[in-house]
């Protein structure tokens, strides 16, 4: 986002709209949603068989902090940007802040999954 922030507002917004359109493809969506499904299956598996809480916490971080934030914050922001209903600077600041949350949640979730 730092590079897009250096562009004039109209150009930064256009580039982000192009990125958002390009990411909607079967490979990305399959990996993104597939990881969520694997995390949900892991939670069920640990609930049934018992085991360490670390993988459950890791899966929960991914589900809430990555998928949840994406659905609740980033996708609506992207939709507003596509509709021209949001100021680029406000969009960029809010999207970046929540993307950092997703990054931290995903990283912490991975560490917990590896430790479990």
From TrEMBL:
Domain of life: Bacteria
Protein keywords: Membrane, Transmembrane, Transmembrane helix
Name of the protein in its database record: DUF1772 domain-containing protein
Source lineage: Bacteria, Bacillati, Actinomycetota, Actinomycetes, Pseudonocardiales
Transmembrane helix among keywords: yes
Pfam families the UniProt entry points to: Anthrone_oxy
Segments traversing the membrane: 21-48, 54-77, 98-115
């Amino acid at each position: 986002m730092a590079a897009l922030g250096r562009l004039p507002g109209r150009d930064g917004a256009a580039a982000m709209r192009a990125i958002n359109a390009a990411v909607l493809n079967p490979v990305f969506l399959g990996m993104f949603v597939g990881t969520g499904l694997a995390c949900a299956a892991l939670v069920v598996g640990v609930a049934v068989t018992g085991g360490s809480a670390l993988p459950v916490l890791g899966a929960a971080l991914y589900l809430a902090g990555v998928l949840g934030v994406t659905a609740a914050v980033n996708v609506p922001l992207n939709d507003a940007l596509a509709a021209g209903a949001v100021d680029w600077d406000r969009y960029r600041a809010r999207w970046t802040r929540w993307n950092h949350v997703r990054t931290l949640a995903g990283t912490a979730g991975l560490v917990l999954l590896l430790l479990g």
